Amino acid sequence: MAGQGKHVEVDETLIGGKSQARGFGSRLYKKTMVMGMVERGGKMRAGPVPDDRIDTLEPLVVARVRKGTTVGTDGLPSYNALGDTFDHGVVRHAQGEWRRGEHHTNSIEGHWSLRAVRGTHVHISPKHAWKYISEFSDRHNMRHSHLAMFNLLVHAFALPRLADA
Known about the structure:
Elements: E1 7-15, E2 32-39, E3 44-48, H1 54-64, E4 70-73, E5 87-90, H2 106-112, H3 115-120, H4 129-141, H5 146-158
């Protein structure tokens, strides 16, 4: 993903509706942690992750983003070591900062609003979250090529049905 002179935004979020639980750890109650990366003006990759710890998130970024890429993240401490591998810019939302020079996470955070969920899906279950996340990522990646999206749909009709396979 990306490369020399390109910029990738990385962020994580929780999906799964409003939590009714209270107390320590309640923010994760019945929620799915999702991490995503989007190249500015390019493609997006996203998927569920078990947690937002450094040993989970950093290897995913290092494995999928090419060296020489500028990486922008929020102030989550799990991203601190990315500066060893990439030109890493951080915006600190907790301090009211949304942009620092060329660094921001507005593109990926706009994707997390997942407005399509409210209009298309009533609920996203943790068991099937990866399917919904893949759908939204594909919609993002195909947003400028409606003909290609249509051709893929027509091609899918020609594939054998589960009962025929």
